[in-house]
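Data deposition worksheet. Section B asks for the primary sequence of the deposited chain exactly as it was used as input, without tags or linkers unless they were present during the calculation. Section C holds the resulting structure in token form. Section D is free text for depositor observations; keep each observation to a single sentence. Incomplete worksheets are returned to the depositor.
Section A, Depositor: J.P.
Section B:
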Amino acid sequence: MTETWLTDRDSVSIAALNPTGYSFINFPRPSSRSGGGAGVFFNKSFNLVLSDGGEKRSFEFSEWKLSAHGRTIKIIIIYRPPYSEAHPVPASEFFREFSSNLETIVLCPEVLLVTGDFNFHLDDDSDADAKKFMELLDTFGLQQHVTTPTHVSGHILEFVISRSSNDINVFSLESSYFISDHCFIECLLSIPGPNIMFKEVTYRKLKHIDVDRFRSDIASSALSNSQWSSLESISQCYDETLLQILDKHAPINSKVLTIRPRVPCFSPELREHKATRRRLERRILSTKTQADKIAYRNACNTYSMLLRKSKRKYYSDLIDECGVNTKKLFYVVHSLTNMSHANHLPPYDDPCKLADDFGEFFYRKIELIKRDIDEIVVEPPKVDYSSPQVLLEKFAVLSEEEVADIITGMSNASCQLDPIPTWLLKLCSPELVLVITIMINRSLQKSVVPKNWKVALLRPLLKKLGLDLVYENFRLSATYH
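Section C:
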């Protein structure tokens, strides 16, 4: 799409352009002038990246690489503003800049597709600039496929251009309905269609656990023993025993899910108006009469108005239901702004090697920081302070009642390394409070931390979305056992 008029600040509007299973990437006009901009809608089963983009004196452009089913297509989107007082750039300047741009891309190894709004009247045989443009395309071995008007004035302003020697064909090209003074251009490329998207998930049926039986198994296990040889043996037995009991009552299952569109605010009324709009769309494509164009435009406006009202009501009710629950509120905000929960990582074949590479990178980084710190010479500040009157010589032993109160007052947040979720731990606290109290007191008295308490779940996270997937742009997020 050209002339999106979107900027990086329009995050909510951009998120609204992401139907389930699809994505929209916006490339705003680089300069501070309003207007312009390009965007691409694509199926998530494809891989699309922005490879280049910018604004020259006579036009703005963005380059994209679309990879799917072993093929890569370089898509160039062009927008050339018409000559005006606000943009007094002659066509000769465009031909010079565009010709220089073509020299760098026409020999690219990918399949080439150039499209956009060029603002030449290609249908006008007397238009000298249009003739010169076609001669330029012929010089570079390119062909233009649009042959029907793309503007309400009846002119051809938008082009779809490919190499004459392309190994894929552009066919069934037609100018479809007008959503503004310009219409959509639809065409088919001889590329295999996207596969159905699947996702494998693992889960436990935690809600189906019989808590009474679960507590009974804990009471009859080794965790009821009050005599232990060492803190290491207690903590290891605690994790292994609880995990075995959890596997017994709620074993890990896996299933494959088909990713399907989900629009919760879509009502039967909207479905009816959408069907009406589709009928009018098919009619306008066959009749192309002015009356059908007006009827279709009115149907589009009515459907858009109802859809906005339905979304506004749905999200308003959803936010009201969150109340003081900030977790649910953040989930709603993430869905509105289309913040992906996927953890983007550098390209890899072996996950173990990727983890080792991350570990080595951050180890070297810490060593460099330590070396730099050792080289810093700081004059220690002169501080006059008195020694504390109270000295901590030993920890007071905790009672089972105190530990039980601490467990009850904890939040339900859990870590993946925990043997059982926190909410289940609270329900089983009468059977577990003894062994937990023993572990805490021994750790404090002996100044020992068991090995399995030192384990953390480390996740490399991008410092900021949109950065290149290189190690320098990652930070580590740690979740402790």
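Section D:
The two ends are 48 Å apart (CA to CA).
The chain has three domains: 11-189, 210-250+343-374+394-480, 269-323.
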